[in-house]
């Protein structure tokens, strides 16, 4: 069984996807880490994020162990990720890894939950359940701002908001696998509800399929 969880940054999709996976004892993959890993690898090699060939080489040589690197959580990695994620060759290199993860989940699990931007539209158009988690950009920027401050990282709300708007725009307007809502996705807006309420809403369509 495959549960696809898509949506913009700081919508709460990661928290929900992790909770769904844990409730069902399914494997969980945060696919944003793949693109963050490629972005960081490009920067580590001293290459430019605008160099598509360099990004494709980094994607083809991608080492999944990099997904545990704490640097992937930085704002620099987020921004680098959304740049390399717009390169078709980078997405092609990441496709197989994601499909394999869903079809043969690690640890012999009976299913997988993947979160990202194009899981229900491109990676698994046949997913058993598709969720699209969203929230207003102001609420998402506020969450990210508080999270950064909580981690001891200096942050200015107006700047976080601007960067989030830019990243949304890049993710929605790219020509390959843009972030769109699958026609058969259940949309959950988390702007005004807490994690518990969002989790209940997210589990309803999942429980119908079990
Ligand atoms: O979800 P996260 O914020 O970690 O993703 C970082 C960036 O990676 C996104 O802004 C997006 O550009 C890209 N991404 C993507 N497709 C996915 C997951 C992430 O294009 N499935």
TrEMBL record:
Provide the species name.
Oceanibaculum pacificum
Question: Known EC number(s)?
Answer: 2.7.4.25
User: Which SUPFAM superfamilies has this protein been placed in?
Assistant: P-loop containing nucleoside triphosphate hydrolases (SSF52540)
Which protein is depicted? Answer: Cytidylate kinase
Name of the coding gene: cmk
Residues annotated for ATP binding in this entry: 7-15
Protein's UniProt keywords contain Hydrolase = no
MF terms from GO for this chain are:
ATP binding; CMP kinase activity; dCMP kinase activity
The similarity comment for this entry is: Belongs to the cytidylate kinase family. Type 1 subfamily.
